[in-house]
Amino acid sequence: MTGRAAPPPRKTTRSSFLPPRPGRAPLILAVGRLRAGPERALYDHYAARLRPPPEVAEIAEARGSAAEIRRREGAALLAAIPDGALPVALDLGGEALDSEAFAARLARWQEAARAPCFVIGGAEGLDPAVLARAECRLSLGAMTWPHLLVRALLAEQLFRAQAILANHPYHRAWRPG
How open is the CA angle 89-15-135, to the nearest 5 degrees? Predict the structure, then answer.
């Protein structure tokens, strides 16, 4: 034993390369409750790496016919969109951006001081009134994803966008020709 005290442990985070983003955190507004399980673990993994981490607001799943469910959930989603937020509907019919284009879009919204509010529908999708209110409609591709898994996919893409904007090598843009 040498008598010298060990240096204090260094506090590091896996996402320390990302500068804090000015403005408000993005809001994820979603139908359904994300319970403990693999979808929650995956979402938490990426959300914890974001600076600032996204806020999440959950809307209860409605009951009734498909049209009635969409109408009820849509009304609740519309009521929960904060004033001044930029509503972004995640919808199969939306624009499919690659990761670099998504990062560029987020940067534009950030420069305009508009916090995005990503709206995720339930099993029946989004009501036409929600789609009409959205200032942007994005698709995660042509495949249909479970609405609970969409949160994790979105959190990963938000983290990837921050990495792209910070010129961090997390995102590897090279693709075979």
Answer: 15
Q: Residue ranges of the domains in the chain?
A: 27-165
What is the residue-averaged pLDDT of the chain?
Answer: 86
Among residues 39, 42, 79, which one has the least CA distance to residue 59?
79
Is 0.85 topped by the overall pTM? Answer: no
Q: Contact 115/24 with Cβ under 8 angstroms?
A: yes
Instruction: Name the class of domain 27-165.
Output: alpha beta
Residues 30-65: tens digit of each pLDDT:
999 989 999 999 999 999 999 899 999 999 999 999
CA distances from 54 to 10, 15, 44, 159 (A): 26, 14, 10, 10
**Alpha helices per DSSP H over the chain:** 38-47, 66-80, 99-111, 128-133, 147-165
